[in-house]
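1st attempt posting a full record on here, be nice pls
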Amino acid sequence: MAAKFLVVANWKANKTLFAAEEWCRAFSTHPLPGGVEIVLAAPYPLLRPLARETRDLKLPLVLGAQDISAFGPGPYTGEVTGEMLSELGVKYVLVGHSERRKLLGETTADVAKKTARARDAGIIPIICARNLSDIPNFSNLPKPSCVMYEPEEAISTNGSYRPELPENINRVLESWQAKLSAGTKFLYGGSLSPDFKFQTLNFQLISGLVVGHASLDPGSFFAIIEGCLPSAS
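the predicted structure (as tokens):
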């Protein structure tokens, strides 16, 4: 069976509980296609309510987290461990997002620890990278491994979309493919909106997308899913 194309909604620090439930109800009105695995990467407090809401609405969505602690259980105030996330039903976690590197000083060494914690908890890490040096031990990544390419110049701010040119995305990921472990899955995550020219991406190489600001609106997020599906199927 062919692997499903992965589309991740990264809500970042957005949405109250009411807004999240409203998003799910609006999204449930769209006829979801097959061949796509849709992930909601939501803030920690929303994960349990989203599990309930998506189950009640029979939405074929899986949960993702936006970060994970580099520590296990113990005296680490404010940290959320892999064990906690796994118990909530989280399947994927973003690790080393550019915003955390820039605003919170997260290093590649931190990313390595968090990646290991995710795997120990049975959660698939999506390692976010602007270049190969952002990926710990990139030449020997264990399976399954997902790497999200997010060129810094293409990161959107409050809906100001500056996507990388598709031919540049293809070229960068082709060069990464030659240096990363075989079987690594590549995702793209820079300034995606419904207007992006998805058909020009190399879907023999790209296994998924991570959508930021545009995922906050269920209609826009669904349009992105529709836009990439013909090339991904």
